[in-house]
Amino acid sequence: MSLKFLVVDDSVTMRRIVINSLRNLGFEEIVEAGDGKEALTKLSSDDAINFVITDWNMPVLSGLELIRAIRSDEKTNAIPVLMVTTRGVKEDIIEALKARVNNYVVKPFTPQILREKIDQILASVSS
For the chain, which domains are there? Predict the structure, then answer.
């Protein structure tokens, strides 16, 4: 399965880090957005996007609100979502899981951790 990623973060630097990590892992098809609202626009206009990596803390529409919007839309509700955020307290992780995020990474992270989380998600959605 060919993956096309949507990387959502209001920090240009963080988007670069995630995108460079993905490219180092062999993933080439990557679209980016600066907030959840822009991400929803890209998802609605690009049917090829089939994996979302999002930050939590963003203006306009947060990562959590983005996940809820993705899950509430029949067209996007099956797209895997990985949250990459600085929010590492248990309550935040539980809240993200309730919103049906597929997996969760606390910053900072290594490309290896990103790969493991992506592989875990792909294994769970393909089974």
Answer: 4-126 (3.40.50.2300)
